[in-house]
Amino acid sequence: MVFTVNYGTSKLAALSHNMLNKAQNEAVKYTDGPLLIVAGAGTGKTTVITKKIAYLIESSRAKPKEILALTFTDKAAEEMLTRVDEELDVGYAEMQISTFHAFCQKILELYGLDAGLPNQFKLLTQTDAWLLIKKNFDKFNLDYYRPLGNPTKHIHELIKHFSKCKDELVSQEEYLKYAENVKLDKDNVEFEKSRLTEIANAYHTYNQLLLDNNCLDFGDLIYYTVKLLEKRPNILKALQERYKFILVDEFQDVNWAQYYLVRLLSNVIPTPSTDARGRLLVEGSLSNTPIQLTVVGDDDQCLPKSTKIRTVSGTKKICDVRRGDNVLSAVGKGYYVTSKILQTKKTTKNTEFIKIETENGHKLELTDNHIVFCYTPDTSDKKHFFVYLMERQDWGWRIGITNDPAVRLRLERGADRIILLKSCHNEEEARFYETIFSLKYNIPTVCFKERDGTQNKAWLKRVFSTIDTASNVKQLANDLNIDLERHHYSLGGVYRGEMRRVKINLEMCHRNYGVKLKYGCYRQAPAISHKLQIETSDRKAIDCLLKLGLRPTKAKKGMRIRITNVDFVYLQNIAKQVAVVSGGIIEYGFKIARFKGRTRKALMMPAKNLIEGLYVPVFNNKKLIVFEQISKIEKKKKRETVFDLEVDRTNNFIANNIVVHNSIYAFRGASV
C-alpha cells in the first residue's frame, strides 16, 4: 500500500527546524511499506527525509550502511548529509547519501567488469564528448546531420539526443530495430527511413567510441547500472539486501531510467512488457518483505484550464493545446518565434495560486511554484516602498525598507543581494512591517555599512555573529512562502580585501541566430543557445572550472569562463558545482523584453516571489514583448485542475499575454 502524506505549504511554515507537525511525524515514523510525500516547494520535504534517516538509525530499525538516500544535485546531497550529521550524536561513514549519478558511478567502479565495462573508466563532460565526436567525425557517416558549410554544426544536438535515449533506456540495438521497422507516411518513407537509420547508426558509433576509449558519458552511469542489475541478479540481490531503506528526494524530477533503477533496488521482481507505443513498462510481483521506499515530490508548476496560450493560429485555451502544436515563444530583445509543444500534462492539486495583474490590465493566475520572468529596474520610479531582506554572505542577513531596491543594495558596502518581501503604499506601512518582521523573527535592521559616530565595523560584525540570522530568515521565508534562492537584484563578482563575491551568470536564449526582422514578425527557426559566464579571481572557483575540464582565460577581474550551449541544464550543472565549491551566487537571467526603449534582463523566479511594483514581460497590442509593471497581486489556496506544457528549445510561452517559463521541467539538472 502506498501511504500519501500531503502537509501542504502552510503547516510546516509555522514550525522551527527542529519541530514536526502531526503529518510530518507520522511520515518520519512510518515503516510499514512504500511512502509518498507530496508538498509544495520550500515546505521542508527534505527535513522529513533527514529526520526519517536519523529516526531509523536511532531507533535501531536500520544500520547506517542499510540506508540509501538519492537526490539530484551535489549541493542537495551535501546539504542532506550535513543535516543528518547534525541530527545524530556521531557521524556514520557507511551511510550512502548521494546523487543518482554518483551512486551509479560507485556501482560501476565496483562491478563494471561484470557488465563488460572497464572499472577504471573516464567520465566525460559534454565538452569532452563533443571533442571525441569531432576527432572521430568521419566514422559517423553523416549526411542529413552534416551541413556542407559547417559539418560539425549538429554535434551538440546529437549528444543531447543520445543522452535522452539513455534516459529512456533505449539500447543501440533497439534504436536500429526501430529505424528498420518504423511505419511512415508513404510520401516520406525513404527520406525518413534514411534519416532515422543515420541517427541510429550514429548512436551506435558514439557508444562504441566511448567503450573503445574506456570512457562513459553522464547518461551511461544510470543506463549501464540498470543493464548490470538486469543481467546480474546476484549483484541486484546483494544491493537489495544491503539497502533495506531507500529514500528519494525530488521524485517528480526522475526520468524513466532513474525510476526503473529505484524499482529494481526496491525489491520489485520486474516482468518487462511494452505499451501500445512500444515503451518498456515494469509490472511485477513483490517479495514478502515490505518495500521500505520513501519518496518526496514537489507540486508541478501549472496553469488553470481557462488560461489562453498564444499560438500561430491565434489564442487557444491551455486545456486544448496538444503535443505538436506551435506556440509563440520569446527569444530575447523583444523578438518572438514559434516553438513546438513537446508534452502536455493535466493534474488536480490543492495549492496556493498567485493571480497577477499588470498596469495595462493583463491578468494571469498560476501556481506559486511556476517560474516567471521578473525585472527590477536599476532605478525605481519610487512609487512603492518595499520591505526587503539583504544578505552579506560573510555576515548574514538584515531587514529594511527602501523605495529603490537596486540603488539601496549598491549603497550597502559589502552586501551581495536583495530579496523583496512586501510592497507597501507608503513609508509608514513599510516601517510597520519592517518592525513586526524584525521583532518576530529576530532579524537585525542595522546596515552592513559603517556610519561615522553611530556604527563601527567591529560592533556591526558582533551583532551578526551573535544572532543566527540564517535560521531566522529561513523561518520568515517559510512563513511568507518566499524562495531565498531566487533574489530580485544582486551585485557583480568581486575579490578585493575582505570583499569576496563569486557571481555565476546563467543567461537563457543568449544567442538566437536568424534573420533579424522588425518587431511584430516571427524570427523563423532561430538557432537557440544559452550562456554561462563566470569572471572571478577566487582560487576555489577557478580550480573547480579546471577540474571540470574547462579552460578559463585571463580577464579584468582574474579569470573568465564563457560557455554557450543549446542545453541549459548542462550549463546549470556546471554552475551548481562551482557554486558549491566557491559559495558563489547563481543568477538566472533572460534579456527577454524592452523597458523604455532598451533591452533589459529579467530574472527567473517562482511566482510566489513576485510583488507589486516589479515588472513582467507582456505581449502587447503592437506585437512587441515589453515590460509592464505589476499593479495587483492576489493569493488564494484552492483545489483546481491545472495544466502543464513543455516547450521545445526556448522553454517559454505566452499565457494571457504574459510570458512565462516552460511549465513541466524547471531547470534542474543532475550532477555527479
Q: What does this entry look like structurally?
A:
It is a single chain. With 672 residues, the chain is α+β, with helices and mostly antiparallel strands. It is built from 18 helices and 33 strands. A seven-stranded mixed sheet has the order 17-29-28-24-25-27-26, with helices on one face. A six-stranded parallel sheet has the order 1-2-10-7-3-4. Strand 28 and strand 29 form a beta hairpin. Helix 10 runs parallel beside helix 12. The protein is globular, with a radius of gyration of 26 Å. The N terminus and C terminus are likely disordered.
Structure summarized in a few sentences:
With 672 residues, the protein is α+β, with helices and mostly antiparallel strands. It has 18 helices and 33 strands.
List the helices and strands and how they pair.
Elements: E1 3-6, H1 10-13, H2 22-29, E2 35-39, H3 45-58, E3 67-71, H4 74-87, E4 96-99, H5 100-111, E5 122-124, H6 126-135, H7 155-167, H8 172-181, H9 189-212, E6 215-217, H10 218-231, H11 233-242, E7 245-248, H12 256-265, E8 268-274, E9 280-286, E10 293-298, E11 303-304, E12 308-311, E13 314-317, E14 326-332, E15 335-358, E16 363-367, E17 371-374, E18 385-392, E19 396-402, H13 405-411, E20 417-424, H14 427-441, H15 457-466, H16 469-480, E21 489-490, E22 494-496, E23 499-501, E24 503-513, E25 527-536, H17 539-547, E26 553-555, E27 558-565, H18 568-582, E28 585-595, E29 598-606, E30 615-619, E31 625-647, E32 652-655, E33 658-661
Parallel strand pairs: 1-2, 2-10, 3-4, 3-7, 5-6, 7-10, 24-28
Antiparallel strand pairs: 8-9, 11-31, 12-13, 14-15, 15-16, 15-31, 17-29, 18-19, 18-20, 20-21, 22-23, 24-25, 25-27, 26-27, 28-29, 30-31, 32-33
